[in-house]
Each structure stands twice: as structure tokens, then as C-alpha cells.
Specification:
With 253 residues, the chain is of the alpha/beta class. It has one domain: Aldolase class I (TIM Barrel), CATH 3.20.20. It is built from 12 helices and 8 strands. An 8-stranded parallel barrel has the order 1-2-3-4-5-6-7-8, surrounded by 5 helices. α7 packs across α9. The protein is globular and about 45 Å long. The chain binds 2-phosphoglycolic acid. The site of 2-phosphoglycolic acid has 13 residues, from β8.
Length: 253
């Protein structure tokens, strides 16, 4: 059975003390709502990872938002997968559209980052999704397929079964425009079908595919009720403990 996951992405928000206080609230609230096999994750800026891991009491897992593709060395200002793992984190977001857009990250680079993250026992949350132009021109299925092929379909079946995918239409991120449950389900089913043709039905069935893009406490129940949507990657709403907890609750939909 595939895992149900709600992962928050704080992006470049929360100074050190703000992060501690928000995370403590989240742990206290999520503790009462999360069912046994569901997973809640907060992907925080690097400065928070170690402190949050110590406060998590196993209730909320910790993730980073990026890692470098190389193991170590002269890359001033960068953070390696091994360093992230050493903070007590278990997840890392790879290929968020903001990284693709503002830091020119390509599928080939993201594929290297994924391999490095897996080598250090981090679970990559690998993001894919089309822009508004690509949606309007009707080329979005090809875009998603290319991102899968170049980004993660080079992995062995064993490694692929360790990753989480997140479908995040770029036009829905931070805009308040959510994909309708039907639009999202369509793409999630397409992604699962592509996984099935590459890796077979068992791995396809077991792959967790999250939806992201203006997901909130109100629309999460309907989105998560779709057959191929296994949870969410949450930006804005993960900065409020009540909203984030209600989205975790929506996993029961
Ligand atoms: P949003 O961001 O929920 O604020 O739209 C989602 C994301 O970027 O992961």
C-alpha cells in the first residue's frame, strides 16, 4: 500500500525563533490528528533542520528543500545530501518549479540530485508540473512525460520505489488557482500509467504521488479523495499550524 503524505514547504520563510515556535505548534496539533501510517513532513530552510528534528518526537518528519548533486567539496554556499541526513532529516524536495525557474535547474541536474539524495538515504520528493503556457497549448502531457523520463526514469526499480512524486502545476503555485480535483486526478492517473509501463503495476500502485498548488484546508478533502492523489505538497498553508493540521486531517477523506 502506498503511503499517504502531507508535506509542508516553508520556502524562504521563518527566522530561527519563528520556525521553532511554528514547528512546536504543528507537532502538538498533528500529534492528535495523524493516523498511524500517515506521514506529515515539514521541509524547512537549512538553518532549522537540526533543531526541528530534535523537537519532532517522531510525529512530524523533517525535510530540506534542495541539496547539491555532488558529495562534497569546493562548492561555496551549498549543502550536501549527507549534511542534510546528519541533521536528522529524512526527506528532500528536488526540482521544485521555483528551483527550475529561478536557479535554472534542468531535469538532467535534478536526476543527479535524486541519485545523490538516495545514496544518503533521503527520500526525494521529486516535483513535476507544467506552466500556464504549456497547459494552454495542450502540451502538458508531453511536458510531464519528459520530466519523468529525464528526471527519474533512469533509476533502477529498487531506487524508484523509494521516491515520492509531487505533481505541481506551476500556474497553481501560490496563485490561489487550484487544479480542479478532476484536472489533478487526470494527470495523476497519467503519471501512474507511465510508471506502470516503465516499472510494472506493483511499483506503480505503491508510488506516492502528491498534489501541490494552492492546496488548502478547504479544497484538500476533495483533492485527496481522488483515487490517484496520495496527499499534498503544501506551500502557503504550511505556515499556519491550524491550516496545516487540517490538511493532514484531510488524508482521511
Ligand atoms: P502553495 O505552494 O501551496 O503556496 O501554492 C505549493 C508549493 O510550492 O509546493
Amino acid at each position: 500500500m502506498r503511503k499517504k503524505i502531507v508535506a509542508g514547504n516553508w520556502k524562504m520563510n521563518m527566522d530561527y525563533n519563528e520556525g521553532i515556535s511554528l514547528f512546536s505548534e504543528i507537532v502538538n496539533m498533528v500529534r492528535d490528528e495523524k493516523k498511524g501510517d500517515q506521514v506529515a513532513v515539514i521541509c524547512a530552510p537549512f538553518i532549522h533542520l537540526n533543531s526541528l528534528a530534535q523537537l519532532s518526537s517522531g510525529v512530524v518528519k523533517i525535510g530540506a528543500q534542495n541539496c547539491h548533486q555532488n558529495e562534497s567539496g569546493a562548492y561555496t554556499g551549498e549543502i550536501s545530501a549527507k549534511m542534510i541526513k546528519s541533521t536528522g532529516s529524512d526527506y528532500v524536495i528536488i526540482g521544485h518549479s521555483e528551483r527550475r525557474q529561478y536557479f535554472a535547474e534542468t531535469d538532467v541536474l535534478l536526476s543527479e540530485k535524486t541519485t545523490t539524495a538516495l545514496k544518503h538515504n533521503l527520500t526525494p520528493i521529486f516535483c513535476i508540473g507544467e506552466t500556464l503556457d504549456e497547459r494552454n497549448s495542450g502540451s502538458y502531457f508531453q511536458v510531464i512525460e519528459r520530466q519523468l523520463t529525464d528526471g527519474v526514469f533512469n533509476l533502477s526499480a529498487e531506487d524508484f520505489s523509494k521516491i515520492v512524486l509531487a505533481y505541481e502545476p506551476v500556474w497553481a503555485i501560490g496563485t490561489g488557482l487550484t487544479a480542479t480535483p478532476e484536472q489533478a486526478q487526470d494527470i495523476h492517473a497519467f503519471i501512474r500509467a507511465k510508471i506502470e509501463s516503465k516499472y510494472g503495476v506493483n511499483i506503480a500502485d505503491d508510488t506516492t504521488i502528491l498534489y501541490g498548488g494552492s492546496c488548502n484546508a478547504k479544497n484538500a478533502p476533495e483533492l485527496f479523495a481522488q483515487h490517484d492523489i496520495d496527499g499534498g505538497l503544501i506551500g502557503g498553508a504550511s505556515l499556519k499550524s491550524r491550516d496545516f493540521t487540517d490538511i493532514v486531517k484531510a488524508l482521511n477523506s
